[in-house]
Amino acid sequence: MKKYLVILFLVLAVLPAFxxxxxxxxxxxxxxIAPAYGAGWNDTAAADRIRCGKFKKNTLTGNKTAATxxxxxxxxxxxxxxxxxxxxxxFAGTTVYGQLKGAYVTRTTNPAVRIYxxxxxxxxxxxxxxxxxxxxxxxxxxxxxxxxxxxxxxxIGAVTAESGDRIVIEIGGYKxxxxxxxxxxxxxxxxxxxxxxxxxxxxxxxxxxxxSRDIIFPSVTVID
Length: 224
Prior knowledge:
With 224 residues, the protein is mostly beta strands. It has one helix and 14 strands.
């Protein structure tokens, strides 16, 4: 029986993955590590770190605001999400996409995102990025938050994770006007439904980031 269990585990470990993996974006929950904020963000003063995962934690849905400083073409980080350790695997042939609501208070702001890998303790940033920092061309509305692609569906190139690496998702805003301002984004996962894939809704639903394949996490086998 023990030999069969081991064989079954090995077979499952090498089978190709076809199902999508959705990460929720909670509003609270301390991250296990604190990697440096990713390159490309011009301002990280408002940023904090939250642990994210495949399952909802029922954290309260609410706004998180970030101030935008003087300067044109400014990327302002709002929140860094960090996953649990994953197994060694390739992301080639995978797409990544997500949905998040937001709005600007003053000064037009676009949603922006960067996704990459770090080693288990966060001291090494893997290259290349899963999704290099970029902004959605569609701005947020003013005051009344609306759903936005964060990011729109994008193919991932030759990115490979080592055993124990973590996925880092950084979400913020992009401002082109040379004036101070602010924007907010809505995080949390205490709703019955998830945001749809579109850019029109103002419904209260869960934001998320999704990969078009199973993200493999380390497995633990129990042999008696």
